[in-house]
Design brief:
This is START-like domain-containing protein. The protein is an alpha+beta fold. The protein contains three helices and seven strands; from the N terminus they run βααββββββα. A seven-stranded antiparallel sheet has the order 1-7-6-5-4-3-2.
């Protein structure tokens, strides 16, 4: 079954360089995205609780700009999740834009999931 593309935008009140570290490093991701993150080359292993680690591969990135991961279960597909930093040219406001894919009908659950994660990130950054 085809997944649905979803996109979210969250205002962040922090420096882009600091935010990027929370998006692109195992140490940063383990602060807000998962309980534990291990990085091995382009492969990141995310752990929540006592369950098995889930593998995602870093498939694209641009320093200080964005990271794009593909979950192991989505290998060979067009599905990914991307965290991108956008700075408004006029106001200089910084936002974190999320692109993700979810099962049809799970859009609201996905939105709430990301809102919770971003709230955690904003608390860590003092960026709310």
């Amino acid at each position: 079954m085809a997944k649905t593309k979803v996109q979210y935008e969250y205002n962040m009140h922090c420096l882009s360089e600091i935010l990027y570290e929370y998006l692109a490093s195992a140490e940063g991701l383990s602060e807000w995205f998962a309980e534990d993150v291990v990085e091995r080359g382009d492969d990141f292993f995310f752990s929540w609780g006592s369950g098995p680690a889930e593998k995602a591969t870093l498939i694209r990135y641009k320093p200080e700009s964005f990271v794009r991961f593909r979950w192991e279960e989505d290998e060979g597909s067009k599905y990914f999740f991307e965290l991108s930093i956008v700075i408004d040219e006029i106001t200089d406001d910084l936002s974190l834009n999320i692109t993700d894919f979810c099962e049809p009908g799970d859009e609201e659950e996905n939105r709430l999931y990301w809102e919770n994660l971003i709230e955690n990130l904003q608390l860590k950054l003092g960026a709310s």
